[in-house]
Specification:
Blueprint (H helix, E strand, L loop, with lengths): L11 E3 L2 E3 L1 H18 L6 E4 L4 H12 L4 E7 L3 H18 L4 E4 L13 H19 L4 E3 L4 H13 L12 E2 L9 E3 L7 H10 L16 H15 L3 H16 L6 E2 L6 E2 L5 H7 L1
Parallel strand pairs: 3-4, 3-6, 4-5, 6-8
Antiparallel strand pairs: 1-2, 7-8, 9-10
The structure holds adenosine monophosphate, FE2/S2 (inorganic) cluster and zinc ion (ZN) (2 copies).
The site of adenosine monophosphate has 12 residues, from helix 2 and strand 4.
Length: 282
């Protein structure tokens, strides 16, 4: 099949249109650009690199769009997995001319190997440390590599568990709150599927870790994601529609939880002491 926009061989079919490598990259960057423009993103962005394909694609695309970036990696101390991921993130940063900032979770007295629910502790620690890093380094935004497949999976998982209180993070932009030391969050890959992020990384020959976190291998969300992709294969476009619906729903639900300032660390919290400080105390 030929590309719709030139004479070259097509490498991907997106919603019925065929794209060659060059035009696919243009399409990809256009989707990232649409988020940047829609929300008027302008200022320094702390980019959360996990070493995986999505955050690598996110970082590379923001770099191509010439935004002001500060990449960082949180070393979670998970056996060899964390070391491999750090190395890949470092290689990517070096190849693009950046210095990678490293945050070590052990310095906060947290050891995931001692935790009964490592994924939950890890999630809290990552969210907290991402915001803290961005805030302390005068960044206006934190960018993560969450893509369309992640957003839809996360929202459906909350639906399946009747967990509407947790129904947040379904939007590409979450504004910051200076008084709570909360930096704005952006998801530049919001309109792009897993498969498209993989193709972007492949075409640009980006360094990334293929390893999965040993704690996440049996996560129920893996099956939900497979199921969504199967449905998308039968009816292209449903993921996009689901994301739009979840985005709208989140706006309608709003957040009823009252925000406080953590008495220990001074960052935002839904109770007197934030979840991160509670974990550290334990
Ligand atoms: P996950 O929570 O593993 O699904 O990752 C979602 C996004 O969070 C990634 O695309 C990264 O942007 C960010 N992230 C995950 N793990 C790390 C890490 N160890 N250090 C920095 N950012 C991370
Ligand atoms: Fe957090 Fe696996 S990456 S527990
Ligand atoms: Zn083309
Ligand atoms: Zn705290």
């Amino acid at each position: 099949m030929k590309c719709e926009y030139c004479e070259k061989e097509a490498v991907e079919n997106i919603y019925g249109r065929y794209y060659c490598e060059n035009h696919f990259v243009k399409y990809f960057l256009g989707k990232v650009r649409s988020i940047i423009d829609k929300f008027g993103i302008n200022g320094r962005i702390a980019v959360a690199l996990s070493g995986g394909k999505d955050s690598s694609a996110c970082f590379h695309s923001l770099h191509k769009l010439k935004l002001d970036l500060l990449p960082f990696y949180i070393n979670l101390g998970i056996e060899s997995y964390s070391e491999i991921c750090q190395k890949k993130a470092e290689e990517l940063c070096n190849s693009l001319g950046y210095r990678l900032h490293i945050i070590d979770i052990n310095e906060y007295g947290i050891n995931l190997a001692d935790e009964k629910k490592p994924c939950s502790v890890c999630g809290t620690a990552k969210r907290y440390l991402m915001n803290k890093f961005a805030y302390e380094n005068n960044c206006k935004y934190v960018a993560t590599g969450h893509n369309l497949s992640d957003v839809v999976t996360f929202a459906l998982n909350n639906f399946m568990n009747a967990n509407l209180m947790n129904f947040r993070g379904n939007r590409p932009y979450l504004e910051g709150k200076e008084e709570y030391k909360m930096v704005a969050k952006i998801k530049p890959l919001y309109w792009l599927k897993d498969k498209e992020c993989m193709l972007y990384v492949y075409i640009n020959r980006l360094r990334y870790a293929e390893e999965e976190c040993p704690h996440a291998i049996s996560a129920p969300t893996i099956q939900i994601k497979e199921w969504i992709h199967e449905m998308e294969g039968k009816k292209p476009g449903i993921m996009l529609n689901m994301a739009k619906s979840f985005w709208r729903l989140e706006e309608m639900i709003g957040s009823k939880a009252k925000l406080n300032i953590c008495r220990k660390c001074g960052y935002a919290s839904y109770s007197k002491i934030c979840k991160f400080c509670k974990i550290r105390k334990r």
